[in-house]
Design goal:
Length: about 290
C-alpha cells in the first residue's frame, strides 16, 4: 500500500512538472488586435490579410483580430488608447504616429525582393510631354493621395521640376491609383503619379515614365509602445520567420502584389519620409502635420 501511494505521489509530481514545462506563455491567453489602413473596402482588406492573420495565430498561439480603420486618424487614436495592439501603416502615417506617441516598428514589407520603393510620373506614349517641366498648364490626376507613393513622392518629383499644383490647368484626386492610371489612358488627364509597382503593368499598354522619385522604405507593421516587451519580441520574431516559409508569398501576396517577405526595420529608415513631409508642410505654410 505504501508503495502504491509512493508511486501515486510520484505520478502527480511528474504531472505537475509537465504542466509547468508545457504551459503556454502567460501572454498566450490574451488577444492581439491588428488594425489596417482603409486602402480598400473592409471585406477586401480582411481577405487580403487573412492568410497573414492565420500565420501569426499559428506562430504565436494567440487569437489575432483584424480590424479595418474607417479613416487614417482612427489608427493613431486606437493605438494611443490601447484599443489596437498592432497596425499596418504607410510610411507617412507611421511618421505622423511616431511624432505623437510611442510606437515600435516591427517589420517592413518586401515587394519583389525590395524593402524600398519609388514613384513615377506617367503620361501617354502619344503625348507631346517629354519631361516633367512640360506639365505646366496641363492636367494632373492623383490616386491614393494620402499614401506616399501617390501623393508625397509624386509631389517631390513635380517640385524638383519647378511644378506646383497651381501650375496645372486642372487637378483631381480620385482615391484609387488604378483609377488615376486608367483616367490618363482614357485621355481624361495628361499625367498621374503612382508607385513604380503600380505603374509596371501599364508600361506596355500605352503609358511611359517621365520622372522618378527617390526610394523610400516600404509599408510596415508597428506596435503600440505599451505592449508587453516579451510579447513584442515574439511578434517581431514571428513576422520575420515568415521568410523561412517555402512560399512566403502565400501568406503575404494578398497584402500587396509581389509581396514576398518581411525585412527588419529601424525607425531611422523613415527619416527621408520625415524630411519630405517637413518640406511639404513648409511649402504649404504649416508648422505641424
Amino acid at each position: 500500500m505504501d508503495r502504491y501511494f509512493s508511486l501515486l505521489k510520484r505520478f502527480f509530481l511528474l504531472s505537475a512538472m509537465f504542466v509547468l514545462v508545457a504551459a503556454p506563455p502567460a501572454f498566450a491567453k490574451r488577444k492581439l488586435t491588428l488594425l489596417l489602413m482603409p486602402l480598400d473596402s473592409p471585406s477586401v482588406m480582411y481577405g487580403r490579410f487573412l492568410p497573414f492573420k492565420r500565420y501569426l495565430e499559428t506562430r504565436l498561439g494567440i487569437p489575432v483580430e483584424l480590424r479595418v480603420a474607417k479613416k487614417r486618424s482612427e489608427i493613431i487614436t486606437s493605438l494611443e488608447k490601447g484599443e489596437a495592439d498592432l497596425a499596418f501603416l504607410c510610411p507617412s502615417l507611421y511618421c505622423q504616429a511616431s511624432k505623437l506617441m510611442p510606437i515600435v516598428p516591427l517589420a517592413k514589407l518586401r515587394v519583389n525582393g525590395s524593402s524600398v520603393y519609388r514613384s513615377v510620373i506617367l503620361v501617354r506614349n502619344d503625348s507631346g510631354i517629354k519631361k516633367v517641366s512640360d506639365l505646366f498648364g496641363r492636367t494632373f490626376v492623383y490616386g491614393r493621395y494620402y499614401c506616399p507613393g501617390s501623393g508625397l513622392l509624386p509631389d517631390f518629383i513635380l517640385r524638383k521640376a519647378g511644378i506646383s499644383k497651381g501650375d496645372f490647368m486642372d487637378v483631381v484626386r480620385l482615391g484609387s491609383d488604378e483609377s488615376a492610371v486608367l483616367a490618363v489612358m482614357a485621355r481624361l488627364f495628361d499625367a498621374t503619379g503612382v508607385s513604380e509597382e503600380t505603374a509596371k503593368p501599364y508600361l506596355d499598354k500605352g503609358l511611359r515614365v517621365i520622372g522618378v522619385s527617390l526610394p523610400i522604405s516600404q509599408y510596415l507593421f508597428a506596435a503600440r509602445g505599451g505592449l508587453d516587451g516579451r510579447l513584442l519580441r515574439e511578434v517581431e520574431k514571428a513576422m520575420l520567420l515568415v521568410n523561412s516559409l517555402k512560399n512566403p508569398e502565400d501568406v503575404l501576396g494578398g497584402i500587396e502584389p509581389g509581396a514576398d517577405g518581411l525585412s527588419r526595420v529601424r525607425d531611422k529608415d523613415y527619416d527621408l519620409v520625415r524630411a519630405l513631409l517637413k518640406k511639404d508642410r513648409e511649402e504649404k505654410g504649416m508648422s505641424n502635420p
